[in-house]
Amino acid sequence: MMKDYRYTLLSLAIMTACASQYANADLKTQCRLGIPHFSGQIEQGEPETLPVYIEADKATITELKEAVYSGSVLIKQGNRTINTQQFTVSQNPQNNRFATLNNSFKYQDNYIRATGKKASIDLAGRKADLSNVDYQLVDKQGRGSAETILLRDQVRRLKNATYTACLPSDNAWQIDASEMTQYIDKEYAEMWHARLKVGDVPIFYTPYLQIPLGDRRRTGLLMPNYSHSTKTGFTFHIPFYLNIAPNMDATITPTYYSRRGWQISPEFRYLTQLGQGTIAGEYMKKDRYEDWADKNQSRHLFYWKHNASFLSDWRLSLDYTKVSDKQYLSHFDSSYGDSTDGYVTQNVKFSYHQPNYNLSIAGKKFQIFDTKNGAKPYRALPQIEFNYYKNNIWKNADFSLFSQLTHFDNDSKEMPTAWRLHIEPKLNLPLSNNYGSVNFETKLYATQYWQKAGKEQKDKIKSHVTRVLPQFKVNFQTVLESDTQLISDFIQTLEPQIQYLYRPYKNQYDIGTTQYHSLGLGYDSMLRQQDYFSLFSDRRYSGLDRIASANQITIGATTRFMKETTGQEYFNLSLGQIYYLSNSRIDDSSPNSNTDRSTSWALETNWRFNKNWNLNGSYQYDTRLDETSLANLALQYKPQNDKVVQFNYRYASQHYIDQNLRSNQYGQDIKQLGVVLGWNINDNLSIMTSHYQDLALDKYVESQLGLTYNTCCWKATSYISRHLIPTPNGERDDPTDVYYDNSIGVNFELRFGSGYNTGVSKMLKKGLIPYTEEFDIN
């Protein structure tokens, strides 16, 4: 029943969204139409210097001390206008003039419009006292009533007042206060003894409250969020925003989990002369979660990102994230990390830049969560780099030099440590004419290691290792263009590319510990890259410790279809493959390929067959595995930024995954079929839904539905989801063992005349597999 219901809900959501193709004016425009606007030009100057204009059916003047105007009376001074049936103008001994109204009136200036029963206005100043008033802010959402209003230049003081940002036809919520002060120029209001009412029902009281009257940031409580899941139970968090200064702010968010306890999450943002950045943290003293063994251990996350430029040539960058345990990001939803990454980084870099060179010193460390293969990550501290580059040093030849000195250390005392000095000069000679371009490049990899064996290490390592590898590469590219006969008004290009790469073999068995040679690991070697674009790269590993020999030819081509009149690209197709002329090896233990076979060949395409439709796909076939290694296909319909439907399919073979994860424990292929929909149905209602099905396991990975309802003065978002979560002990012995978390949440937000977004983009980021834009045709 659950499965049938889920698909029915998904189908209904898609049909509902697609049925609504047209909407009226956007919500912001509709809301702005419902508020008064000041007409005419705003007059500047002191009120006492501005003349007073009076129109009336009848006037009675007594010895120039008092005048009574009656009938249809209009009084105007500067930006102030009053309409009434009768009022009296009097003058005191100091020649100050006052207008007194004892019957109904309409008052308006460039800040407020009001109707009331009684008023006194100082015509020689900026003061006015109004009684029994209904008011509406000018050019801003905000209205209410008050027993009295004292207008003082940029300040409005109200007694026994109400306030709401809803339009006159909407009484969804209001705030009642015994006293309210509105600061017009600063765009905020202070309230004392405030009571929030939804409809006519009081739901919240506070002795003091600040609310915004515009788009400026203000200190105060933000709207709470409520949710419930089978993993954490009931969750409630209410953020407190602190506007410290124009260049600094902070948010402190206490969160209560009914099955875990309290968590506190502060975030501090800053922009100073020393740079800009964010410092954040998450802390839980004790976690009562039933599947968490260390009940007395605190669980926390620390995050700091900082970027600075100073003295014109110096740069500083810091990206530091650390968690208390390897399951933290699986158990908590955090804005500062994702369990799907499998690690967090801790990097700092200090650099100096000049037109032809740069110098930097850095420290790098990874905190990884999957340690099944027994390897622990190395930290690089320090890592000193010097780069030099000079163009046209000789007959259009370009020269560059990359050099790096790094110290590698490890938390495991059994792992070796090392210093590595790497020097890499490169000379590049490009030649081109109307037929194409040829690029000749030669490079030298010169590396020296000073290694120290780990404690009780069985396999001894050499204390000194020297590796020198020359490299030669030649690359030919051309662009063939013609007016295609297949499609009228289109130009087709064919861009073939061929490359030869040679690098001799050097046995690198003595670099690092022999324990991980079969895994392709060195001090900083990372996973292989095997997509189309990497086919033309120099190396198969991103690190410097494993540089495989190369004697290979790479062939590839791209064809494009572009509009003849605009040059806009509508279709491209790329295909490439490497042919090995001899084995590619890093040591004598095992070759990486066979001489009579090529590596993976790759195909990629983008096709915009309509202004709203895109098709993106890629395919890789590994001839060594004799099977498809990777494939994905995505079809997207996106008529507007807040309306998108995407169907996608992703595939990765088990052998390819095990090979790149340096493990054989994943257990099965990945065959994932998904659909994502984010749609602004009309000005009030937005929907997001997604579903990902793993065809290999015949189980779904994630299914979620979110609805956002928008009005001019409030927004409500609700969502339900069910997605895969890690096994209780963090391990996955059997691929068929799956665990799900069911979640439901509600977020209610009061609007104070700003933030009219539909909520589609925010909802699309939710979930285990967030929506990504995969199309690059412009």
Automatic annotation (TrEMBL):
GO terms for cellular component: cell outer membrane; transporter complex. Its main location: membrane. Keywords: Cell outer membrane, Membrane, Signal. Residues 298-684 form the LptD C-terminal domain. It is found in: Cell outer membrane. Pfam families: LptD, LptD_N. Residues 1-25 form the signal peptide. Belongs to the LptD family. HAMAP family: LPS_assembly_LptD. This is LPS-assembly protein LptD. It comes from Phocoenobacter uteri.
